[in-house]
Amino acid sequence: MDQICVAVYxxxxxxxxxxxxxxxxxxxxxxxxxxxxxxxxxxxxxDGLPVVPLDKFQETDIKILIATPENHHEAIVDxxxxxxLKDYVCMDSRTEAMLMEKYYKKTGRFPILHDCPEGRQKAxxxxxxTRFHKDKPLKSSYRAQSWIYPIQAGAALAETSIADVRDDQxxxxxxxxxxxxxxxxxxWAGKHGTADYLGLFHYRRILDVQDEDLFRLLKNDVDVILxxxxxxxxxxxxxxxxxxxxxxxxxxxxxxxxxAPLYAKAYEGIFSGQFFYNYNMLIAKREVFxxxxxxxFPILARTEELSKPxxxxxxxxxxxxxxxxxxxxxxxxxxxxxxIAHTGxxxxx
Length: 349
Fold this sequence. Notes:
By secondary structure, this protein is an alpha/beta fold. The protein is 36% helix and 20% strand. It has two domains: 4-91, NAD(P)-binding Rossmann-like Domain (Rossmann fold); 113-347, Spore Coat Polysaccharide Biosynthesis Protein SpsA, Chain A, CATH 3.90.550.
């Protein structure tokens, strides 16, 4: 059987995830390389395949799969057209989610929400969707489900109110939003949310959870819904090296050793793998949600104390990135303790 040769545009988590899915699912399709704007901040190869700057890419009869976050697609398409490359496909987040669902169904490692049978009783759910006073308007309209509630993140730092629910009400860390990002809203939800299931989405990113999926939660005693893990090469350590200073990473590890030594011991084994829970998004039973928050936020607060400069002396979102890593550590550590279901991540544009 003749193979179809394709190139993947991108070299980070979306591109790597799409590559492994294609490699596993479609034996008649062969990825020959990855394309990037330039090599700055990108690897020189992935799984033995070259990463090629666009100005060095010579193939003219190869289909190109654009596998980056959707907000970059327009600029990439423009660059390809200027180079005379017209055979391309944009992998939007919904197409990516369907692809990854097929991949994880094939591999069988991470249980899929949509494979759970529906029951008769609908779960009581409140998902808080973070909004920030500097958010750019979406180009497309989005009608949120009735159980999604906008929450203003960093409300203590804003002069205007943009949502009925604010993360500066009651027990809160709203003033830390510049470092904690959406985690200031996660903290608030853990302290104040009362629904049986609590969750967090972003104003541009949501989980593929539909109204009918709420009938799957109680029937299957689902503890947690998480996005399909993104895949990384050679392992998920590359994520923190891309987004975090090594001193900040070491401060978090020190905090882990102090406050959660069992997790610190498990860290190397988990982070030598390729699977990463990105985006700080989840839905969980209220008691599981709160237990996770009660575990993570003291570690992050201690990390602030150990960081140089300290957390309250800066505003660079580093705690938000560390939260993604701690989410991965916590739920990978507890993958046999919790019934975790997975679904796709959609990007709103």
